[in-house]
Amino acid sequence: MIAEVIVDISTSEIDKIFDYEIPLSMAISAGDRVKVPFGRQKTEGFVVRVKESSDCKYELKPILAKLDDFTAVLPEMISLMWEMSEKNNLRLVDVLRLFIPAMMRGGRVREIKRHFVTLKEGVTQEEALSSLKPNAINQRAIIAEIGKSGEWASVLGEKFGFSAISALAEKGFVSIKDVTKRRAPILKSVPDKIVTLSEEQKAAVERIMRGEKSENLLFGVTGSGKTEIYLSCIGEVIAAGKTAIMLVPEISLTPQMMGRFRARFGDKVAVLHSGLSDGERYDEWLRLLRGDAVIAVGARSAVFAPLKNIGIIIIDEEHDGSYVSENNPRYVTHEVAAFRRAFNGAKLVLGSATPSLETYKRAIEGEIGLIPLRNRVQSKKMPTVEIVDMCAEIRSGNNGILSARLEEEIGRTLKEKNQSMIFINRRGFASFMICKKCGKVMKCEDCDVSLTWHKSDNLLKCHYCGKPYVVPDRCPACGESDMRLGRVGTEKVQEVLEKKFPGVRILRMDKDTTRRKGSYDEILSAFRMGEADILVGTQMIVKGHDFPNVTLVGILDADMSLYYEDYHSAERTFQLVTQMSGRAGRADKDGLVILQTYSPRHYVFAFSKDNDYPSFYRKEINVREVTNFPPFTKIVRVLVVSEDEERALELTKKILFKIRDYQKANEKDFVQVAGMKSPVKRIENKFRYQILMRLTRQREDATLQKIYEIVNAEDKKGAQVFVEINPQNMN
Ligand code: ADP
Ligand code: ZN
Question: Is 464 inside any structural domain?
Answer without folding.
Answer: no
